[in-house]
Amino acid sequence: MWKNPWIRTNSSECSTSYLRNSMKTFNVAIVGGGPGCLAIMDMIFKDRLRQLRMNLIGLADINPNAPAIQRAQGLGIFTTTDYRELFSLKNLDLVIELTGNPKVSQAIQKEKPPHVQYMEHTVARLFWDFLQLEDEKLRAEKEAEKKIKAERDYTAKILNNLADTVLVINENRIIEDANETFLKEFQTTRKNVIGRPCFEAIFGRSTPCTESFCPLSRNIGEPSAEKRKEYALERNGAMVYYEADHIPLAESGRPLRWLISLRNITDRKALQLDLERSQKRYKDLFQNARVGLALFDAHGQILEANFSLAMMLGYSRAELESMNIANLALFHGHAILANHLEGLKVLGFTSVEMDFKRKGGEPLPIEANITWLQDEGIFQLMARDITLKRKLEESRKAYSERLEKEVQQRTLECKRSEAEARKEQKTAEGIIYGSPIPMFVLDKNHKIRYWNKACEKLTGFSSKQMLGTDNHWKPFYPHKRPLLADLIIENDIDKIYELYKDMNLRRSNMVEGAFEAEHFFPHLGKNGTHLYFNAAPIKDDMGQVQGAIVTYQDFTERVRMTQELKRRQAFVQNLIQNSIDGIIATDEKGRIVIFNRGATEILGYAAEDVIEKRTYKGILSNETAAAIRKAFYGHQFGPPGKIINMETEFLHRSGEAIPVRLSGTLLYERKKEVGSVVFIQDLREILRLQREKEQAERMAVIGRTVAGLAHYIKNIVTGLKGGAYVINSAVSKKDLDLVQKGWQMVERNIDQISNIVLDMLIYSRERKPQYQMVNPNILVKEVAGLMEERARLSGVEMVLDLDPDLGEVAMDRTAIHRCLLNLIGNAIDACTLEGLTNGKGKVIIRTDRPQGWAVRFQVIDNGTGMDKETQDRLFTDFFTTKGYKGTGLGLPVTQKIVNEHKGRLEFESTPGKGTTFTLMLPHRKITQSDMPQQRALQEHLKS
To answer: 3-state class of 71 per DSSP?
Structure first.
């Protein structure tokens, strides 16, 4: 028989007293000595707060004659006019602020020691309200005790017919009663349960559960609110999950017993776990979506921001990553991110609309989803531009205000109805009305006997409206029709199957004669509600049906999660397949599991030919596969685990090398690598357009420069004519020495014409370097030998400073020879301009190997140097400082050759002191593609 859970026992009182005596006493100091402080002091000294033991050790008020100050001095309690002196009190646990002054409140929060807790005056007011509520509760319990005995047998029948398992334990954790549903769920008997500890009967433990596992461990014998906790049990080799509600059955403010209601939530838990795994699997894919993302630490310092956020706000990523997140926000957003990061940690996740500040200063409305990543110890912010949404919200504002007023009015009406219901039906409130399970009870005349609070919340109909009526159909259907409980009372089984056959109807395994079903009720709630409902007969001792009890369970959230899981999966697949870039994902063994249409268009493979059939190595060259793996685990293209904008080559199905730009990330689940995903962008068209643009620019510049070369070529032609004249005169005179002199004049001008034509051909024509292994020092010596006579005639000293340990470097020997010839010739000319003669000129040619480069050539002169205007024009429009003696082709040609080698050409110059040109070439290996060029070059040299 179900026992009355409100009957006092001496043992319960002793346990409660012992628990209260063992509770921690909080040392309290109060700031503000007005009437409110006197009220708090009365509560502390009279021990009226049964849930919290306090010891007043200090009091502060700027008025030394405040009432509470004088009273505290009479009791020997420490007082002061400066609240800061309270912080030095020994063992201080809590400071209560009663001044009501926001500035005082903020100052205390800022200056108090970290271990001291803080309570503002509005929270302190709750002590008084709580005390009044507790007194009212005690009066209500005394009145309820008189009626409980008469209703005990009836409520026991109701509880034994509940679909959920229910049991009662006392303050010693001993099970005093359990309903039939509990016995069937745990496959046991009343004899094996009653009188045994809960931890032994439910979990098979020999000792009490730990405090972290049992929510009652700290609260046995003390006033407490309802508690809810999830438990997992292993049964027949599978995990079974329960949701438990612990409801105190209190008397005189002390829970002598606890009502525990268990619901099997295994199906819901499985869906939650599936959703979590799905979200984790695709987390890294969404991190590459085109939404604003930022990671920042517990102080607000931005650690990382993506390109979308940078573009959204007009900053560069580097600029964002040097800023504090609060400095990007305006108004209330700034206050949240500057002052409430600790609160955001507690929330874990929050979504809030705020205004961010663009780089230009204009505000940008965004929706910010802020998540505290506990394992990493950082915040993640996802920002979406809601400019359009903000405009729509403004248009709906008026409607929302009207709706808010209606909701407030409805809330007030519900509160009044609930207050009236508590007065009328105190007997069943502790069990039925206190249950979180929506339920109602019909008597044999189909009139509503009970309509609990959870049912009110579910249906929107108050118990005041429903009690004593037969309107229990109204919340669920637009027209009157019998519910399952009505048909059970009438024992009309045929009608049950006729009306509920499409609602997954089935007999209950827990209660004899009960039925359960599931259905979507479109008229219930704002958007309809999915309900599981159970109807069971209530029988007397003779087995006659005296009524029926109906319980409901809202599984709308479970349906929503299922639909959300499907929607997310569909969205991700659509995002992947319709991406312009190629997307390739692999599992932990390297097998390709995603190969979208973009990847097919770039690489030529059909998805069905590679998914689950090839690894990433099967579609890459060995060199590219090794380079990508190295990039994933190194720092060259981003942090370990990520690749950002790496340029490489993939192999087309036909064997063609495709230039691509690659970004990617390793995928992790529970800190274990489970695969990878890469995004590839085809660069063929971009590179082609870039080459055409550069070629067009070079040809345009050559066209503009032909006129500029006219005077130079005219001088060469004049020199040729002069040489021809000398030769003709020498022939007529038969003077061989004069012929030799004339011929030397012709040769010099022919060399100048050859150099001009060669430079223009090199600059205007697209070409690839003909790589071979060359010793840089030997090449420098060759060029220096050619320029030695020119330097001697110009009175310039030429010095070689060569690194003997360089070794051979891959380069186009002829092209780099041309570059050095131009640079050394310019250096010699710079030493002879503006009258720098008589052996003062000096040119140093140096070689070495700086870190990250294969070789560095430096040509250093002490010539005239260059001013800023000359430096700015040095590589443009064939600019020359030599007048008609120069073409301006040398440096542009040199720069083009260096760029073709993917090298670097730099210079430093100081007017009147000289110039240094630096040419650096990168490391490169001779590959198979270079071999035909090598053979052609060798044949050319032989011929």
So the answer is: helix
